[in-house]
Automatic annotation (TrEMBL):
This is UDP-glycosyltransferases domain-containing protein. Pfam families: UDPGT. It comes from the Eukaryota. The keyword tRNA processing does not apply. CDD domains: GT1_Gtf-like.
């Protein structure tokens, strides 16, 4: 190790069992080490993440700084540590087929590694802080008994959803019910069931999270996906961490983007609950157009990913800038309850000869002969390229891409802001409807939102249509959603073909708004900005020095 350990301060960061969380944790760790020259950080991940984590660190450092010496110094202070469940670990039978199983296993592995870090001789100093992923299972007394350091909660999403899920009385969200369940139910099985019921609320109660129009609780699961096995364990673990176990919260957003939700969070958590919150901002490079994929990085990609980038190069030459749409539902989501929507999407693209690229990571569960036939037809027409894994930041930075059709995950949203790429939201559940509303509502919205993809919504009308049909910025009538195939097609044609067309004034306006949004993001990361101050407030009490 090239860094003098004498003055180092050490933080342990457990990135969890979901790669989307782990990836943003890596970026946060890099940011913290870049801000503080005497901070060393141990990143704890399951073994399955190690190769990706190494590649991600290398890539993110090239995105974050052109200073080779700084990149080398930060790399030397980042330590990847494998966590492995103890040999005697046995998954509880009720979690065998559960959403919670990988998180439970990773949590057991984390606790074992925390114990080992304090038993065996270590190269780094004794940790001064512990950061844990959102759904880590641990015994606070046990962890503190080993080393009584601040335990911080890692929230890799936005403020408005934080308010909805954990907010105070009167907010109309789920927080009061979750907190009451923790205070009144001692039986773990009953508590899990209660949390599952609360999380899947179909109530029409209106939540007010700060920066969004009111939103009905039933819009939280706007695609009406059924509760997944283990969702009660999952939400109970998260809620227990927030309200009972941690000493503070790191939140991946900022006041520059969500000022009103930030005020609610500060008032409730910092002032009332006395668990401080730190807005560590979007987890994406602020270097913008300077941070592009190098030819060396392209060479490391899979053949399908290389072909996809070549397709974009060809499309730029043939059709011009902003001519291609990029669709990704992330690695977990797809229109599982209405797979025919994917058929209609492809039909609309083919009929209108609109070029598109697509991540096929989550398409397999909805694949059928008709859908595969449509993909093949689009490929033969020269308007489509797909890959199981897409180098998303490279795609979003590509000049051929005009808009990003996204499920609205926070990582994807942050990357789109970093690339100043307008978004077309196709949300399914959890934080996605809130993120979509944040960036698609209002008179100066930088994005669009698809509503017909929510399915048959007569019983669950979005609050956005509480007063009936709307009018788009282009003057077209937007009917109250019905979710029929005809309505889905009409919405696709309006947004994907007309309003997001490469030469349309609607796309131009949204592009300008995204550029302005990206500028505000960059300003917030500069010395004197809110992110710099939040990181200083977090690290200075540990003895870390902060670069000015």
């Amino acid at each position: 190790m090239s860094v003098d350990t004498k003055d180092l301060k050490h933080i342990v960061f457990f990135g969890g069992a979901a790669w989307g969380h782990a990836r943003s944790a890596i970026h946060c760790a890099i940011t913290l080490c870049m801000k503080s020259p005497n901070l060393a950080l141990s990143l704890l991940f399951p073994e399955a993440f190690m190769d990706r984590a190494k590649d991600t660190i290398d890539f993110m450092l090239t995105q974050e700084t052109a200073d080779a010496d700084l990149a080398k110094d930060v790399h030397a202070r980042l330590h990847l540590v494998v966590v492995i469940p103890p040999k005697d670990y046995v998954c509880p039978p009720e979690l065998e087929a559960s959403l919670m199983r990988p998180f439970q296993e990773a949590s057991a592995a984390f606790v074992a590694r925390w114990e080992q870090l304090h038993k065996d001789p270590q190269q780094l100093p004794r940790p001064s802080m512990l950061i844990v992923d959102v759904c880590t299972e641990f015994d606070r007394k046990h962890i503190k008994g080993i080393n009584d350091v601040p335990i911080m909660f890692w929230w890799s999403s936005c403020y408005n959803y934080f308010v909805y899920h954990f907010g105070p009385d009167g907010s109309g969200g789920l927080g009061p019910a979750f907190r009451k369940s923790l205070d009144t139910i001692s039986d773990i099985k009953e508590l899990n069931q209660a949390n599952e019921q609360i999380w899947g609320s179909t109530s029409d109660e209106l939540a007010r999270t700060g920066d969004l129009r009111p939103i009905h609780q039933y819009e939280h699961i706007c695609s009406r996906l059924p509760a997944m096995p283990g969702s009660g364990d999952f939400t109970r673990a998260i809620n227990t961490n927030v309200f009972k176990k941690v000493d503070g919260h790191l939140i991946c957003s900022g006041e520059w983007l969500e000022p009103e939700a930030r005020k609610i969070v500060q008032s409730y958590f910092d002032d009332t609950l006395k668990t401080p919150t730190y807005g560590v901002n979007l987890r994406v490079s602020a270097r913008g157009d300077e941070a592009t994929f190098s030819s060396k990085q392209v060479e490391t990609l899979s053949p399908p990913a290389k072909e996809l980038l070549s397709f974009l190069d060809d499309a730029l030459e043939k059709h011009g800038a902003q001519s291609v749409l990029y669709l990704s539902w992330g690695t977990t989501f797809a229109p599982f309850t209405a797979p025919w929507q994917a058929d209609i999407f492809l039909d609309v693209m083919i009929e209108n000869k609109r070029p598109f690229v697509m991540s096929s990571a989550s398409v397999a569960p909805i694949m059928n002969p008709g859908l595969e036939e449509r993909f093949e037809k689009a490929r033969k027409a020269g308007i489509c390229a797909t890959a199981p894994w897409v180098p998303q930041e490279a795609v979003l930075q590509h000049k051929a891409v005009g808009a990003f059709i996204t499920h609205g995950g926070w990582n994807s949203t942050c990357e789109a802001i970093g690339a100043a790429k307008p978004m077309i939201f196709w949300p399914f559940l959890v934080d996605q409807p809130f993120i979509a509303s944040l960036l698609s509502d209002g008179p100066e919205a930088p994005g669009w939102q698809l509503y017909e993809t929510r399915g048959a919504v007569s019983q669950y009308r979005p609050y956005h249509f509480s007063e009936g049909p709307r009018t788009s910025e282009s003057g077209e009538t937007i009917p109250v959603p019905t979710g029929t195939p005809e309505a889905v097609r009409a919405e696709f044609e309006r947004i994907l073909i007309r309003e997001a067309a490469r030469d349309s004034p609607e796309l131009k306006k949204r592009k300008e708004r995204m550029v302005a949004l990206r500028k505000r993001f960059i300003e917030s990361t500069q010395p004197g900005g809110e992110t710099h101050q939040a990181i200083s407030d977090l690290l200075t009490p540990l003895g870390c020095t902060i670069r000015t």
